[in-house]
């Protein structure tokens, strides 16, 4: 390290307040920033959102009152396309897992060649959940209670003492299917058999992923974190970069959160949004303190890239070009994936998407993460955040074995599990706010128990609220 800066001061609220001021006169959003810098703008980033959501912030009662839980189950979790698992979780025919969302549970089965099926995870005899928290495999789904057995398409295939169940035939007593489809290596379900196809629910998103196929990725790290917060406020914390200033101060020298671009699309069927934040561009709050060279050194350290030779990184453009080149080399050396023709933006920046109700795929290699949120049980106070690190593989190459999912309980942190590495560290920073947000909602004066949302930096939360209000059929 040739340069140093005291990063801790950015986590000091007094310093931030006194030294940095409160607003910027000139803070271009991502694509404008790239254009000014004379850098290639990827077509996907230049394709801007077409939807301006209404400004109707959702009152806190919807996050707290248990009476809304059954309503959400009926109107959202039983009606919307949602990610149940990744294909690599059930790589072989006969493999299956449970997907739990609130009190609901679904059985996801690799049921044939390139075919996945999903069912209500409930035995037709006396209801026992067929698949529990452990993945299972085999050519029959056999209930552990009395051994009723179903084939991989859910057809009732065997009933012990069948003579005592004269009406229990496959036509009437097979597993009850739900809609199941895949996109980008993700298995989606929709319990509503009348709902439109998955493609409708994803809107413009797949067209932006044509050059970043999520199916050509494998799960390199996998975390499931239980959190004491409502699922909605849990995911809202990831819809904006506005919290970086005090929540992720150590990231400010290398990620320019103040240049974040936000985009929303909504055609009435799909509610999707995106944020893009540049890397190797010091955040607006610290731009006078951090040289491009320092940003580059920190970036290389964080991402395990070779330390830049002396003299490299005098300008932001040079630092970004070096980091992108080394990122492409890293992927080529690791798994033979050739990214040599990719834009700097693709290789180093953060491009995060969101599809209502609760899925976050990321685009590019800057942060190739994947999040999914689900409510836990019948409680409005608990949810599960699932995080994966999806690394690229060559088209059609076999995926490396799935790592064990690190299950992190309410009271535990990512740093309790060293194998979660950088992902766990950043997750911990976000988790510091979670329980306190939920408690703060309960502590709010009922006369003002709703948020105020920024016009651009929090526009995706406005959009999320708009989609939620519509799905729940609420009049505010
Ligand atoms: S509950 Fe499944 S076989 Fe009895
Ligand atoms: Fe965060």
From TrEMBL:
<protein>
    <submittedName>
        <fullName>Phenylpropionate dioxygenase-like ring-hydroxylating dioxygenase large terminal subunit</fullName>
    </submittedName>
</protein>
<dbReference type="InterPro" id="IPR017941">
    <property type="entry name" value="Rieske_2Fe-2S"/>
</dbReference>
<keyword id="KW-0408">Iron</keyword>
<dbReference type="GO" id="GO:0005506">
    <property type="term" value="F:iron ion binding"/>
</dbReference>
<dbReference type="GO" id="GO:0051213">
    <property type="term" value="F:dioxygenase activity"/>
</dbReference>
<keyword id="KW-0223">Dioxygenase</keyword>
<keyword id="KW-0001">2Fe-2S</keyword>
<dbReference type="Pfam" id="PF00848">
    <property type="entry name" value="Ring_hydroxyl_A"/>
</dbReference>
<dbReference type="Pfam" id="PF00355">
    <property type="entry name" value="Rieske"/>
</dbReference>
<keyword id="KW-0411">Iron-sulfur</keyword>
<dbReference type="InterPro" id="IPR015879">
    <property type="entry name" value="Ring_hydroxy_dOase_asu_C_dom"/>
</dbReference>
<dbReference type="GO" id="GO:0051537">
    <property type="term" value="F:2 iron, 2 sulfur cluster binding"/>
</dbReference>
<feature type="domain" description="Rieske">
    <location>
        <begin position="81"/>
        <end position="189"/>
    </location>
</feature>
<dbReference type="InterPro" id="IPR036922">
    <property type="entry name" value="Rieske_2Fe-2S_sf"/>
</dbReference>
<keyword id="KW-0479">Metal-binding</keyword>
<dbReference type="InterPro" id="IPR001663">
    <property type="entry name" value="Rng_hydr_dOase-A"/>
</dbReference>
<keyword id="KW-0560">Oxidoreductase</keyword>
